[in-house]
Design goal:
mainly beta; 4 helices; globular; disordered N terminus
């Protein structure tokens, strides 16, 4: 009897087939106020769900509600951006790291309505604007430090 109890205590939790088929995804969104990163999941049908509220089981994530750089001509044309009097050139596209979001990024005022941030330590050299909320991909603009 003791052996059965020990086996039950160390057995992995049972996961439903539906839950096992869901893939976790990062979601960067301003839908709930300020720019934040959440963890959602992609269902087998491809739809992304998230827990924006306390709704049990989550709710569909509506990426179309996000304002993104992809909606702006300055991103499509890769034009320079002027932010706080500094000019930045398009550098590329990058996913946000998995590091703690608020600890390692400074949220900025939206740029032309698009949520923006700067990773700590490069606030005067880089500007990241939301490009794809699912996967937390950002369009990155950078400027060369003075004297280079």
């Amino acid at each position: 009897m003791l052996v059965l109890f020990a086996l039950a205590a160390f057995a992995p939790p049972q996961v439903s087939a539906e839950a096992a088929a869901q893939t976790p995804v990062s979601i960067c969104t301003a839908q709930e106020g300020g720019l934040n990163r959440h963890t959602g999941f992609r269902r087998p049908d491809g739809q992304v769900w998230w827990h924006a509220t306390l709704a049990e089981g989550g709710a569909p994530f509506e990426a179309s509600r996000e304002v993104t750089a992809g909606d702006r001509d300055w991103y499509r044309d890769r034009r320079p951006l002027t932010v706080r009097g500094l000019t930045y050139e398009f550098k590329g596209v990058a996913p946000l790291s998995d590091w703690p979001f608020r600890r390692y990024n400074r949220i900025m005022s939206p740029i032309d309505g698009v949520p923006a941030l700067a990773p700590l330590g490069v606030e005067d050299r880089e500007v990241w604007v939301l490009l794809e909320p699912v996967g937390c991909r950002f369009a990155v603009w950078a400027r060369e430090p003075a004297g280079t």
